[in-house]
């Protein structure tokens, strides 16, 4: 007997299969398949507040179809949510995903592998999600992914702009690459303005294919930042996402302060030089669009600078003092350095 819903293009059995897959690959599998995800607030908080974030991965996901590689885009989705939660001073607790597609097939399991890996990196429980098969809205190979995460902290530990002051030090944490922003421009440069493929190896970066560079997952900063939050060593955090330095760093500042940053301090990531070269972009525009090798900027008291750097760089060098806060005269961000 035919199934009318299946005749319309929706395979209900695929949803059960996805739930089973997630249960088999997560420890917190009692939630999966319920109508709602359940999470118990940890004990010990006196005045807990919840900090939430939802986000997607933009047009980076189109490159996963080009490369037929879907197992890391879920890490990007988790990262975009949990890194924003860190920026408020909270510790991520749980995550839910939403995947919509024209046809639920093997790519969905591959995407979920990345979601699960990202949750493990973020120490966040995957307590639920939704996979929607939507023929007519999406082609069978098309999909979108979004995520939702919640973190927690004491109300008094929320990072507040008014606690920042002139001479506070700015510490930059290295990014893994482009992360998950600016990909509409990235795709235009490489695949419209130039006839590259994901398999191309560029002379400027002979050790990786272009696809490997572009699909490098967004770095998750939970394991770097949470110990510093626990010790109350951080006064402000900016997650460098869409809009680059110019849009995101001022978001953590009060109206009377500006960030002064020396762009010569941290090592360059080759992908940004490649983008600038093939896109014929002005360097100043690059700082308006991309993270330029710094995925997160911390504001710390000058007396805590060495302690913070020692903790962040204990195993490998990932953090650099890149600037300081100064009284604002005009602009909220002042970039300097011989590169400019």
Automatic annotation (TrEMBL):
<dbReference type="GO" id="GO:0004637">
    <property type="term" value="F:phosphoribosylamine-glycine ligase activity"/>
</dbReference>
<dbReference type="GO" id="GO:0046084">
    <property type="term" value="P:adenine biosynthetic process"/>
</dbReference>
<keyword id="KW-0963">Cytoplasm</keyword>
<dbReference type="Pfam" id="PF00586">
    <property type="entry name" value="AIRS"/>
</dbReference>
<protein>
    <recommendedName>
        <fullName>Phosphoribosylformylglycinamidine cyclo-ligase</fullName>
        <ecNumber>6.3.3.1</ecNumber>
    </recommendedName>
</protein>
<feature type="domain" description="PurM-like N-terminal">
    <location>
        <begin position="49"/>
        <end position="152"/>
    </location>
</feature>
<comment type="similarity">
    <text>Belongs to the AIR synthase family.</text>
</comment>
<dbReference type="InterPro" id="IPR004733">
    <property type="entry name" value="PurM_cligase"/>
</dbReference>
<comment type="pathway">
    <text>Purine metabolism; IMP biosynthesis via de novo pathway; 5-amino-1-(5-phospho-D-ribosyl)imidazole from N(2)-formyl-N(1)-(5-phospho-D-ribosyl)glycinamide: step 2/2.</text>
</comment>
<dbReference type="GO" id="GO:0005524">
    <property type="term" value="F:ATP binding"/>
</dbReference>
<dbReference type="InterPro" id="IPR010918">
    <property type="entry name" value="PurM-like_C_dom"/>
</dbReference>
<keyword id="KW-0436">Ligase</keyword>
<dbReference type="InterPro" id="IPR036676">
    <property type="entry name" value="PurM-like_C_sf"/>
</dbReference>
<dbReference type="InterPro" id="IPR016188">
    <property type="entry name" value="PurM-like_N"/>
</dbReference>
<feature type="domain" description="PurM-like C-terminal">
    <location>
        <begin position="165"/>
        <end position="335"/>
    </location>
</feature>
<dbReference type="GO" id="GO:0004641">
    <property type="term" value="F:phosphoribosylformylglycinamidine cyclo-ligase activity"/>
</dbReference>
<keyword id="KW-0067">ATP-binding</keyword>
<dbReference type="GO" id="GO:0005829">
    <property type="term" value="C:cytosol"/>
</dbReference>
<dbReference type="GO" id="GO:0006189">
    <property type="term" value="P:'de novo' IMP biosynthetic process"/>
</dbReference>
<keyword id="KW-0658">Purine biosynthesis</keyword>
<dbReference type="Pfam" id="PF02769">
    <property type="entry name" value="AIRS_C"/>
</dbReference>
<dbReference type="InterPro" id="IPR036921">
    <property type="entry name" value="PurM-like_N_sf"/>
</dbReference>
<keyword id="KW-0547">Nucleotide-binding</keyword>
